[in-house]
Amino acid sequence: MKRLILASLAACAATPALAQPTVPPPLTTPISGVRLDVVVTGEVTRVPDQVTISAGVTSRAPQAQAALRDNATQMERVRAALRRLGIADRDIQTGTISLHQDYERTPEGGRPSGYVASNQLNIRFRDVANAGRIIDALVAEGVNNVQGPMFGLANRDSAVDEARTRAIAVARARADLYARTLGTRVRRIIAISETGQPGVIMGEARMAAQAGDASTQIVPGEQVVGTTVNVTFELDPPPSR
Question: Are 90 and 143 members of one domain?
């Protein structure tokens, strides 16, 4: 019995490491050189491949119910026209519906003159070249309120990723410039982070009617997609002078 107890104690004493947690190695080594923080913006240019407008109908009638009824009838014609033009249901979204009392100006200030009903649809066109023709067709069906356009990219993530790649390249080139000026070299990248939400920085686009032509023209222009990154480098210590 004494030999069995001694053997058990010896086994426990021989494996103390099993009960101790393993400490992982540090993710980064201490900085022994010069730390350099660089903030850069990478940009790419794209031609928008989709456009969204707000198109709707505003109706007036002496009574509120009549204004809403007339508005609903006209909007059904507009929706039917969108279906005939090949606009998918996923590209049509109700924007705003409103009803308010209208007033006529008088020397005394104003008096009720009826009701105004409005229904706006947000319509996305994936065929930008034909967007103007579609708008003209909608106006022929009763649309009397058009706002926009707002241009966008179907594959925005791809453009943002390219902007990120350019930003990192610019950051590295800038770090190399600093290193050469100091007479040293870039050792490694320590950290990378993005500032804000990547997206469209600016755009140049418009909707207008061409001179001598009654048709509406959609001019997409270009959009600049960009992202800003913070990159931290470690440089070798510069030579002593």
Answer: yes
Q: Report the alpha-carbon distance of residue 189 to residue 169 in Å, rounded.
A: 12
Cα 49 to Cα 33, 92, 193, distances in angstroms: 48, 17, 30
Give percent above pLDDT 70 in the chain. Answer: 80
End of a domain among 152, 184, 207?
152
* Other beta carbons within 10 Å of 114: 15
Give the lowest-confidence range in 32-36, 97-101, 122-126, 170-174.
32-36
Choose among 101, 56, 54: nearest CA to 75: 56
Q: Name residue, tokens 């540090």.
A: 26
- Residue for token digits 């930003």? 167
Domain boundary pick from 108, 136, 152: 152
Residues 6+ apart with CB under 8 A from 194: 164, 227, 228, 229, 230
What is the domain extent for residue 139? Answer: 50-152
Tell me: do 143 and 78 sit in the same domain: yes
For position 107, what pLDDT does the model report?
Answer: 78
